[in-house]
């Protein structure tokens, strides 16, 4: 059956790497109908929403959505000028990525990690980060409410006073954790991993740690062939650098997962090689981990590999695993050969040259 694939190129190098990598869809000759949509800063300026209504309609009809990048910084100066006019019309800028996550309830952020370039033992694992609750659930304020003062008996609080303190709450719910862990074990099964590691801090955050651990083990009991492991997040960070080959799937709450994901992107050789997926129930969007990179936009220096790998993840999601394998293999081949690399990987090739080498490797693998 024909699948609908919506591409939102967005801003900066997002547009450049989309243009360079999307021809791979023609080469692979899949039953996919590719459509383009508008999103980004310019649309907020014009319409008061970075995701126009017509784009929402396209998103709702799509089997998978591919996002190039959305500018978060760089345009802030312009924003400062525009804000008074637009806010006068009752408009506030909300990040399109946040809008997508909330409206589609994308509860899991998936980042496959593997060593493609550089020294050290090859490895492959995946980090799955909870996307809706944890320390980023939105309970974050300056000043401690009087009603909590019986419970919060820290000596420094008495020294500072309730109004000279700030508080953030790590919210974890059975609903949120069960769907996350279930997805992590399903992902492990579907991608050939034999271990799922919960990265948390149960030795210090005893109550919330115990709560998460119990739910984790409860879900694990339904997946006989997959080992469930509980680790302190600091130990996981150390091992990601020292012996990443010991991991399969690593699952963590929002903030801890955020940090581990970026650490892992560094271990695998930088942002130019890191793809990601945001997953909800039957909904998904895919984007390279990097942003719009205003510092190199327009210079032909953007590494297109992350976008190729991201397209691979989207294809896998739509049921085209063999095609995704071909893309992964082609990227690996070009990176290993080292003849056609962009400056971030130590080469002197342009976005277009490296993309052409990857496209050629898709057609004629070695
Ligand atoms: P944004 O505001 O869109 O998040 P940013 O300033 O955070 O942009 P990122 O895109 O997150 O920029 O990139 C961080 C750094 O990594 C930049 O110096 C950028 O040039 C570099 N970088 C990111 N992606 C790539 C890529 N695909 N190829 C080469 N360099 C990259
Ligand atoms: Mg960024």
From TrEMBL:
It comes from the Bacteria. Residues 4-358 form the Isopropylmalate dehydrogenase-like domain. Keywords: Oxidoreductase. Belongs to the isocitrate and isopropylmalate dehydrogenases family. This is Isocitrate/isopropylmalate family dehydrogenase.
């Amino acid at each position: 059956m024909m699948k609908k694939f919506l591409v939102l190129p967005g801003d900066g190098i997002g547009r450049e790497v989309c243009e360079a990598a999307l021809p791979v869809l023609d080469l692979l000759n899949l039953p996919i109908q590719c459509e383009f949509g508008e999103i980004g800063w310019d649309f907020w300026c014009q319409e008061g929403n970075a995701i126009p209504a017509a784009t929402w309609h396209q998103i709702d009809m799509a089997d998978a959505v591919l996002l190039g990048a959305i500018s978060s910084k760089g345009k802030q100066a312009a924003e400062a000028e525009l804000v008074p006019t637009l806010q006068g019309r009752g408009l506030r800028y909300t990040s399109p990525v946040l809008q997508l996550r909330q409206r589609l309830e994308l509860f899991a952020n998936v980042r496959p990690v593997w060593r493609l370039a550089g020294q050290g033992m090859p490895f492959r694992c995946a980090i799955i980060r909870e996307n809706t609750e944890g320390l980023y659930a939105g309970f974050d304020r300056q000043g401690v409410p009087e009603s909590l003062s019986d419970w919060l008996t820290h000596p420094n609080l008495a020294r500072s006073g309730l109004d000279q303190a700030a508080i953030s709450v790590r919210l974890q719910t059975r609903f949120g954790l069960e769907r996350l862990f279930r997805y992590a074990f399903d992902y492990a099964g579907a991608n050939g991993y034999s271990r799922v590691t919960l990265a948390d801090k149960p030795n210090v955050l005893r109550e919330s740690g115990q709560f998460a651990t119990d739910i984790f083990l409860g879900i694990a009991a339904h997946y006989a062939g997959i080992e469930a492991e509980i680790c302190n997040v600091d130990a996981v960070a150390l091992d990601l650098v020292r012996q990443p080959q010991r991991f399969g799937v690593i699952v963590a709450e929002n903030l801890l997962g955020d940090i581990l994901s970026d650490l892992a992107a560094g271990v695998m050789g930088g942002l130019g090689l890191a793809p990601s997926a945001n997953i909800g129930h039957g909904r998904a969007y895919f984007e390279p981990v990097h942003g719009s990179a205003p510092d190199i936009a327009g210079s032909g220096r953007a590494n297109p590999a992350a976008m190729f790998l991201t397209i691979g993840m989207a294809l896998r999601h739509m049921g085209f695993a063999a095609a995704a394998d071909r893309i992964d293999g082609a990227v690996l081949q070009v990176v290993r050969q080292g003849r056609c690399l962009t400056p971030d990987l130590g080469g002197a090739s342009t976005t277009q040259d490296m993309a052409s080498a990857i496209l050629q490797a898709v057609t004629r693998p070695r």
